[in-house]
Amino acid sequence: MKMAARFSKWFFILAVFPVTVGFCGWQGWSWWSWASAPPLSGAAAATENAATEKNMIQVEIPQGAAAQEIGKTLKATGLIRSVDAWNLWTRWQTLQNREGSFQAGAYELSPNQPLETIANTIWQGEIAEQSFTIPEGWSMLQMAEYFAGQGLFSKEEFLAAVQQIPRDRYPWLPEGIPHLEGFLYPDTYKLPTGKVSPQVVINQMLDRFEQTALPIYQQAQGKTLLQWVILSSIVEKEAVVSAERPQIASVFARRLRENIALGSDPTVEYALGIRQTVEQPLTYAQVQTPSPYNTYINAGLPPTPISSPGIASLEASTAPADTEFLYFVARYDGTHVFSKTLAEHEAAQAAIQDGVAAQNKAKPGAVE
Prior knowledge:
This protein is mostly helical. 48% of the residues lie in helices and 8% in strands. It has 3 domains: 56-127, 2-Layer Sandwich (Dna Ligase, domain 1), CATH 3.30.1490; 129-323, no CATH class; 326-368, 2-Layer Sandwich (Double Stranded RNA Binding Domain), CATH 3.30.160. The protein has 14 helices and 6 strands.
C-alpha cells in the first residue's frame, strides 16, 4: 500500500502536475494572444488594412485619467478586446518600474493595432498632431481666412482674439497696440488634432516671435520694438527677391532720417484691403485716399505693422546700411530699379510702363 501511495504521489509530481501547469500556461498564453491582438484581425484585418489611416479612431485621454478608466474607454471605442488584458499590461509596467505613465491628450489609434502598440503610444504621449504654415508677409486677415478654411475656428473668432493683447504673458509687447499684427511669427507649427482655440495658435506664434525675433532686436539701432517690426513688415511686402531686402530697408531708413514720405504701395493696399496687379495697378485716387497707413501722404511709419515679417526682413531692418538711393520701383518680375534722384526714378517708371504696354500689345488678340 505504501509503495502504491508513493508511486501515485511521484507520478502526479513527475507527470500529471507538469502537464496540468503546462496546460494552464498554454490556456493563459492563448487567452493573452487573443486578448492583446488587434480587434480587427484575420479576415477583418485583411479587409481593413488598406484603409487603416482612414479608419483611425480619435480618442481623448483626460488629464488625470486612471489606467482602468483608459482601458474602459478603449474597449468602448473598439480599440482593444479586453479591459482585463489592459490592466494586466499596466500592472506589468508597474512591476518593471517603467519610467513614466499614461499621458493625457488626443490620440489617433487604429483597431488594426495590437494592445501593446496602443498602450505604448499613450504611455509615451504620442498625441495626434496637425500642422499649419503661415507664410512670411501674411496679414492677420489672411491668417483668419486660412484658419477658417482649415476648419480650426471662424475668421471672426481669430480676428477678435488678436485684438486681445496678452501683455501679462508677453510683457515685451508694445503698449497701446490695437492688435497683434506683425508679432504673429510666420512659420510652420504643430497642434493637437481636434478642437483648438485661437488663443492656443496665437500663443504659439508669439512664443516663436519671442524665441526668434527678440534676440535679433537686441542689435537694432535707434528703434523701438514697434518701429522695428513696422519697418520690417513693409520691407517684407516690398521685397520679392531676398537679395534686395537690405537695399530696400536702407532706402526706407534714409527716407525716415530725412523725413521724406516712404511712398510704399503695400501700405496703401493694406489701408484699402486690396492687392494691386500688373493689370490693375493702384490708381492716383487710391494713392491719395486718406489713411494713417498711407505712406504717400503721411511721412514716417504707419501706426502698426502691415504684415508678419520673416527672419530675413527683420535682419535687414535691424541696422540698414547708408545708401545713396532714395527711390525704387518694381519691374513686375520681382526685382526693382533703384534711383538716386526723382528724375531717374520717373524715367525708370516710364520705361517699366512702356515695357508693360509693349507686352500687352504683343499678346494675341490685343487691339492696335
